[in-house]
Specification:
mainly beta; about 0% helix
Length: about 300
Amino acid sequence: MSLRTPWFRRFAVSVICVSVLWLGWASLATVSDDVHSQPSLSESWRLADSWNSVGIAAPASLLSPRGIDLVDDRLWVVDAGNTRLQAFGPDRTFLLATGGPGTEDGQLVAPQDVAASGDTVFVSDPPTGRIVRYGVDGGTQPSWDLSPAQPWGLAAIGGRLYVSVPGTGEVLVVEDGAVVGRLEGLQEPRGMAVASDGTVHVADRAAREIVSFNAAGLETARLPVQHPPVDVAIDNRGDRYVLCDVAGDREGQGVVLWYEANSLRSTRALFLYGFEGVTVHSGHGVYTTVERQDPLFHGVQRY
């Protein structure tokens, strides 16, 4: 992926955009010896866009956003607080909202993650054990029932869906609604990303590793991460963006660590309160979902 080279800066960046109460805020901090020597991401990126639209039910408003995925110029965001899925353009233009509370096809109870591939968008709904499916136009498709598994993170490529199940320490390989394989040797898999060559990268929170598997399901690499990883994104160059909890620091603080392709050490770190999910896309940059109470922010930030 060819990310443009942003401005060099040392401090946090704030951007205020007026449009249905758009507000952005970011903060940088140093919290561990492991990243003391790393330049902040703001020295390599700039906060390019930020939107905060706290609200209930209104189109484009977000409440407790969770998973995020950007495919074919559609940014899919799990709007967990409103039990729905929303789609935006990469420039935050509102496109559609679908879903709603319930257990029928197209309905959600506590949605967590999203992945899009081809003409289908998948949303995990852990309490019901379902993968809820939609068309890219927001139309409802039949759900996949994976119970008693409680699906969490999602990654999709072609006709294959990878589904993490933290409770059993495995990733299910699902095709046409049927489990056709499992990725094992994990402790607490959470968010995932799949590269164009079919390699799956799994954030193993308890093991503090990013574990990689090839398309045949064989483990190929383990990347140690100092803080517990909860999500991961990968760009077209093979650079990995790892979203972590920052244990032992102020409540709610997270960090995105940038690992260049084939590197075992992060060279840049961005700290922010309330990180929830991360995705990256060629030509657009890195997007994160954020939920923070002080100052109030439920929205998306782009770097």
